[in-house]
């Protein structure tokens, strides 16, 4: 899940603690082109204010209009946006897309507040849960996710299952001009970004809004258990004193992407060094993208950072596609 979904849960908790009734929306499925994948979240209050995204604008407007007009008064209802050609044109859905959304109207009681707290902790933690919603009764609960893979959303005649896991996280091992641009791009792409660097001068010069900075050796942070399967770990300093220990610790995690900056020649030398002094084997080395990033001929720091973030997104989308093979596709 994206870091935007963390922001949705944080706002939902804030409003629920203030006693606000919430409209909690989950994208169930998409047909055609859609900017937000299944599992994406949006929360709104009775005033029509909202946080999150369903489509990038057009569906949100239709949803808020229906909310303000009092048309979304059921505990749970599923709405298909763009199902007709006329509606698709009116909502400006791209490529004739159709978006199915579960909309829950939830009063701010103790049960709902606890449920939101559990979901929020899951996005920030390490374990995966499944959220189970029964539209007919409006009931909901969570259970541990025992599946190693599978579609994010499954819907049948009586129940909806939504897999909830840690939000996408990028750990940057050390600060550099490339790392600064990388933090900016990744944050805009929906990642939770954490930068680790014990050097005071570098931390003082680093200023990227929305990015967490840790005064710690990157390798120590990585070894502390602060990563999960939705984490990318990248070292972009050209300083082997920071980069090499970070890679040694990174391959001991279940991070889905590990990379370090350097030329082909530097990368070959680093691989030998990591085997010799770090105790890594060929399987460990194969997990490390070095040189890091897509080969787009990048030279300037911003271009290198763009190539890095693009490759991380590519790897994550490939992993997600493998988890939702055609034989696992949810029923409409």
From TrEMBL:
Residues annotated as domain XdhC- CoxI: 15-81
State the protein's name: XdhC family protein
Q: Which Pfam families match?
A: XdhC_C, XdhC_CoxI
User: Residue limits of the XdhC Rossmann domain?
Assistant: 170-312
């Amino acid at each position: 899940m994206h870091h935007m979904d963390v922001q949705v849960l944080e706002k939902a908790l804030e409003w629920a603690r203030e006693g606000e009734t919430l409209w909690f929306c989950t994208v169930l499925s998409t047909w055609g082109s859609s900017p937000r994948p299944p599992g994406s979240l949006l929360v709104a209050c009775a005033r029509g204010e909202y946080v999150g995204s369903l489509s990038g604008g057009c569906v949100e407007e239709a949803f808020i209009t229906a909310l303000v007009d009092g048309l979304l008064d059921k505990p749970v209802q599923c709405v298909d946006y763009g199902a007709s050609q006329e509606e698709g044109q009116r909502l400006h859905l791209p490529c004739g897309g159709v978006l199915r959304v579960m909309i829950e109207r939830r009063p701010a009681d103790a049960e709902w507040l606890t449920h939101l707290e559990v979901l929020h902790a899951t996005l920030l933690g390490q374990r995966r849960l499944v959220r189970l919603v029964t539209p007919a009764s409006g009931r909901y609960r969570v259970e541990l996710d025992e599946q190693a893979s599978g579609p994010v959303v499954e819907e049948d005649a009586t129940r909806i299952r939504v897999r909830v896991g840690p939000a996408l996280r990028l750990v940057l091992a050390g600060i550099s001009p490339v790392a600064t641009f990388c933090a900016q791009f990744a944050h805009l792409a929906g990642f939770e970004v954490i930068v680790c660097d014990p050097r005071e001068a570098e931390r003082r010069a680093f200023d990227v809004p929305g990015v967490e900075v840790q005064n710690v050796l990157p390798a120590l942070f990585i070894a502390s258990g602060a990563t999960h399967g939705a984490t990318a770990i990248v070292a972009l300093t050209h300083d082997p004193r920071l980069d090499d220990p970070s890679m040694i610790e990174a391959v001991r995690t279940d991070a889905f992407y590990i990379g370090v900056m350097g030329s082909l020649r530097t990368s070959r030398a680093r691989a030998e060094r990591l085997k010799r002094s770090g105790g890594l084997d060929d399987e460990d080395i194969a997990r490390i993208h070095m040189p890091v990033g897509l080969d787009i001929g990048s030279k300037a720091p911003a271009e290198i950072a763009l190539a890095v973030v693009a490759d991380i997104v590519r790897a994550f989308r490939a992993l997600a596609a493998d988890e939702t093979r055609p034989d696992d596709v949810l029923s409409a």
